[in-house]
Amino acid sequence: MANLFGWLFGAGQGAGSGGAAMAGAGVPKPVGGAVAVSKPVAMPAAPPAPTAMAAPAGAHGAANVSSAPTPTPTPTPTPTPTPAAALVSPGVASSSVAASSEVASGGPIGGIPGLPPSNAVETITVDQIKPFPTRLPDAELVIIQMFGGDNNLSAFVYEDLQEMAAGIRGSKIAVLGIADLAGKPGSIVEVTPDHGIQIIEEIGEIDTGDPLVLHAFLVRALKTHPKARKAIGFWDHGTGVFDETDSSEKIMTRRMSSVAREDRTRSRPARHLFFPKSRLERDNDTRAMLHDDTNGGVLTNLEAGAMLRAALKDAGVAGKIDMIFSDTCLNGMIEVLDEVADVAKVVVGSQDLEPGDGWDYKTFLTRVVAQPPATAEDWGQHAVQAFHDAYLPFPKKWPCTQGCFRTDHGITAAFADLLAACRKANGFAAFVYLDHARAQSQGFAQRDSYDLRDFAAKVAVVSQQGMPEVSAAAAKVVAAYDAARVHSITLGKFVPNATGLSFYFPASRSQMARDMATYERLVFARNSGWADFLKQFR
Fold first, then answer.
1. CA distances from 535 to 210, 274, 509 (A)
2. Residue pair 490/400 in contact by the 8 Å Cβ criterion
3. What is this structure's pTM?
4. Confidence of residue 461 (pLDDT cuts 50, 70, 90)
């Protein structure tokens, strides 16, 4: 098991943490505060320091195959960082360190409920949490990325890192990521303008579906650049509101591609928004958000929101970061927006399936460098417009959607008022109007996911004569939606009415019965009353 306690607090860089300290790296001064963190139990020794491995053939070529020797500990206290080409070198045996999900038995981290209680909790100050070594301690903008690549997307991780390196040249932008690839140990990767891509720590086999792993990484990453403006990104497949069924759910409060971008296929169609445990047990491919094929983990929406809140608190971050973004499919939903609303100022995501190779980070970051964002909204607008510009020349990759929305919004409250108007008018009769509008609204990937603005606009029209009060309430949902939207784009004839943000509306009672036990736990479902309304009238 990777020593997450040692990793989180930077204990024993090199042999102790399984990673190499960066020579001459500047370390930002931590901020003060206190945080409760559980001591994991009986942890074996961490793996030896990483060594350089074979480099890939080129930006879009297959990696060179070489016989890599077994890594040995580096005697120097500050060894040179491992070239990030190691991420794509084939044939390298992964670390013998086991997955970290067993840390759950250690109890709550950062005062986090939902995990087994433990007496092995010590109180430490935030000053004791050590940042990662960095080549750019004075970065002005930082992207903190979680690459869930222990699956069939492993090939694209290094390529996207290369795009990032190309996009941030001549800037004060840094990228800090946790990368988990199929058959390889997890790594902490840094991308800086002057030094390119470097592995700064190797941490053994990890489960990117485990919120404890991501929490440990994020706390140190946030501490590494305390003064920089930040964006946190999720990178993987996606299934709408993540995937809310996970048999090991933990709720916290605390190969290079040789095919040109334009010739690649779209992402494999995701299935349904939610799945029963029995289906997950027999089909791991249904697990999509930061899913880990080695360990079978998947990050649920509830886990993601709670993990992010805990990480910001435990890192001593006051207020919200600038942006949360999903380089995944189908996560441009009001349910996702509300789940992370107290973590970031804006959220960016796609309503539809993304093309197989996802975001073009060079296009995105080149825009950011040319026009540094003055606000979180500016940053989100760059991300959305860059997605449009990258895929506009390639119609075979359409449909494409992307949207950016403010987390301080009135959409959920307006939606609750709409449901109240429906109940007052005649609940069952009003539901007929809603369901009729749903059937005519813009949908995505043959899922129970519909464009929220298109739906509300259609409700306003179909109920205008019979239930004017419902029509008026629906119009207010549209107004709140427009006030919250920063920017959205759509490409392709199949998504003409996509406006950036979707919501869940089951098309049948049987579908609802399968999904409701997980859906009703979400912030939007509870605060809007939508889950209760569906259970009563669907």
1. 31, 16, 9
2. yes
3. 0.75
4. very high
